[in-house]
Amino acid sequence: MKAAILIESLTGNTWRAGELIAANLQQENWQVTGFAPMRSPDHAAIQEADVVVVGTWVHGLFVVGQAPWGVDRIRALPKMSGKRVAAFCTFALNPGKSLDAVTRELLSTGADVIGGLTLQRGRLAAHSEEFAARLVDAVSNA
Length: 142
Ligand SMILES: Cc1cc2nc3c(=O)[nH]c(=O)nc-3n(C[C@H](O)[C@H](O)[C@H](O)COP(=O)(O)O)c2cc1C
Prior knowledge:
single chain, alpha/beta, 6-stranded mixed sheet, 6 strands, 5 helices
């Protein structure tokens, strides 16, 4: 399987999670066609990929008002009609409904959103591994 990874990150956690997810997928013999910031998506890598992984982070007042950062950048992604997409959000304390908001935006790009997970920034390695394992399962059971 081939995955393209698109990341929105301010302080590096989400970027790191993307790298960990890429490494976990490669261990499952997946190929990573591209790894890019969401503001400059690699169109060819997205086109070539079977699955696009989109990661961003949660902002808000920590326990209220949480939302995914970079919603406008998700909206500006190339049309991904029928493309399988899996999303994740990194957070510190409480992600609220941020993942639902990311999913909604991705659906509006035409993507087929096959899953998503919130990753706690203090447990990035374990949560990234879990994300990759669930993604591999979802694709192989499809
Ligand atoms: C301005 C700001 C607001 C944040 N608000 C929240 C929040 O409401 N809830 C939460 O769980 N984490 C919150 N966080 C923590 C980030 O979601 C977390 O550190 C995330 O991993 C940052 O990703 P990045 O390192 O890729 O930028 C906030 C961080 C910042 C900088």
